[in-house]
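Budget justification aside, the reviewers requested a transparent look at the raw inputs and outputs of the sequence design task funded under Objective 1. We therefore reproduce one unedited record. The lines immediately below are the structure tokens for a 444-residue chain.
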């Protein structure tokens, strides 16, 4: 969605909120304090997104057309500064209607007056000079079962001379007409009426543009228009669809408006109840989320502790394995050293015996040199026998040394297998601890 689409959606939504807030209030006559506050908020929100920042040429097409009043903040004003300004108009229509008609001319009627306010509409248009015609329907309140009193229409025609960038209108009052049923309309003398106005409104002749007489279009859309006066009150108009009938039979009577206001109040109470129920559900969901977060934190803490314990066990097993391997290697080296020393000693003894035998044989040979060959042969045979015996003893010594070495190697292999089995057992314990931790996480 583009920025333009979002802005259009916000404008339509705020305009719809203004119309919804005005439903069942009979232009504000039936509004309670809560209704008034809700309407003010809706209008302020609408003004925030639909503020007027255009001048004559671009604002005129948006203003042109037929508009219907749906809310006026001054309908509950029983005093008001305007009453003093327009009180002089009573001399033209009769003192008995002065309080009603003069207040209605500026849309400040009393809710409990003897006159019933009908439709209030505005028509803005014209060729050349832009005009604004405001038509107000009045009817005297008649008790049942008497027939309805005749309808009186008050038509106020003004020329719009200027519209500045902030939406402020400079109006020139051109005519005021009264019409009852089919009788000819009565036009009030505008010149005399202007002379009767206080100096505040005659600084520039014919124009209501000072103090509380200043009118401004504060917000405008295709369907809703908000106007504010210098006195601080505001009026909300809704554009009439093309071809809307002008008969007043379409207006809701007071009973229907009261029923609509009651239905609106009941809907508001239902919304508040649903809002409270939703708030309770949200609080419960928040508490559940907090409990789940705490439980998750406990499980994560347990997992970290298990992982730390497994890491420590693996480290201890590795250290134990290294120490056992070092001791086994030291034992093997010691056995090999002892076997080598024994073998060297046996070899030395055999060599010494061989040397002694050779020397004895040599000596005997030298002594018996003079003897006959038979004696020499016997001596040589005995020497050979001694050499053979010595060689046999040497072979036996070598065999015993090799058997000792083999036994030492076998003992080392057995001890190494035992240490290897311990390592395998330690690794299985580490795997089981990790699997248990992962199973605990999976159960979450």
């Amino acid at each position: 969605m583009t920025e333009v689409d979002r802005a259009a959606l916000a404008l339509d939504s705020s305009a719809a909120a203004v119309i919804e807030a005005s439903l069942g209030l009979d232009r504000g006559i039936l509004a309670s304090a809560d209704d008034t506050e809700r309407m003010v908020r809706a209008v302020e929100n609408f003004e925030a997104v639909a503020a007027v920042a255009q001048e004559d040429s671009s604002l005129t097409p948006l203003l042109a057309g037929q508009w219907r009043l749906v809310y006026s903040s001054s309908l509950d004003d029983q005093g008001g500064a305007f009453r003093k300004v327009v009180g002089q108009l009573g001399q033209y229509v009769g003192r008995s209607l002065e309080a009603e008609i003069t207040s209605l001319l500026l849309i400040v009627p009393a809710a409990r007056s003897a006159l019933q306010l009908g439709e209030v509409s505005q028509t803005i248009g014209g060729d050349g000079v832009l005009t604004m015609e405001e038509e107000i329907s009045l009817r005297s309140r008649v008790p049942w079962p008497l027939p309805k009193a005749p309808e009186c229409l008050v038509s106020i025609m003004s020329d719009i001379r200027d519209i500045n960038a902030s939406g402020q209108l400079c109006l020139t009052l051109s005519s005021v007409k009264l019409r009852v049923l089919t009788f000819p309309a009565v036009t009030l003398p505008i010149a005399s009426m202007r002379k009767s106005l206080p100096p505040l409104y005659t600084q520039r002749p014919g124009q209501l543009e000072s103090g509380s007489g200043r009118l401004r279009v504060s917000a405008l859309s295709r369907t809703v228009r908000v106007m504010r006066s210098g006195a601080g009150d505001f009026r909300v108009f809704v554009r009439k669809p093309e071809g809307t009938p002008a008969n007043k039979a379409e207006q809701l009577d007071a009973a229907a408006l009261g029923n609509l206001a009651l239905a609106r109040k009941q809907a508001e109470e239902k919304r508040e109840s649903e809002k409270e129920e939703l708030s309770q559900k949200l609080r419960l969901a928040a508490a559940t989320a907090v409990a789940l977060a705490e439980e998750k934190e406990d499980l994560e803490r347990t997992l970290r502790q298990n992982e730390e314990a497994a890491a420590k066990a693996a480290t201890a097993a590795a250290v134990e394995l290294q120490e056992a391997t070092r001791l086994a290697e030291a034992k093997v080296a010691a056995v090999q050293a002892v076997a080598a020393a024994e073998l060297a000693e046996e070899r030395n003894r055999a060599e010494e015996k061989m040397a002694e035998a050779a020397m004895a044989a040599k000596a005997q040979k030298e002594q018996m040199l003079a003897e006959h060959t038979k004696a020499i042969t016997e001596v040589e045979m005995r020497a050979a026998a001694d050499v053979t015996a010595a060689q046999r003893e040497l072979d036996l010594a070598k065999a015993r040394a090799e058997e000792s070495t083999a036994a030492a190697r076998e003992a080392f292999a057995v001890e190494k297998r035992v240490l290897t089995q311990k390592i395998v057992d330690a690794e299985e314990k580490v795997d089981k601890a990790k699997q248990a931790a992962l199973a605990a996480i999976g159960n979450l």
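Residues 77-112, 197-213, 244-257 have pLDDT under 50 and may be disordered. DSSP finds nine helices and nine strands in the chain. Computational costs for records of this kind are itemized in the attached budget.
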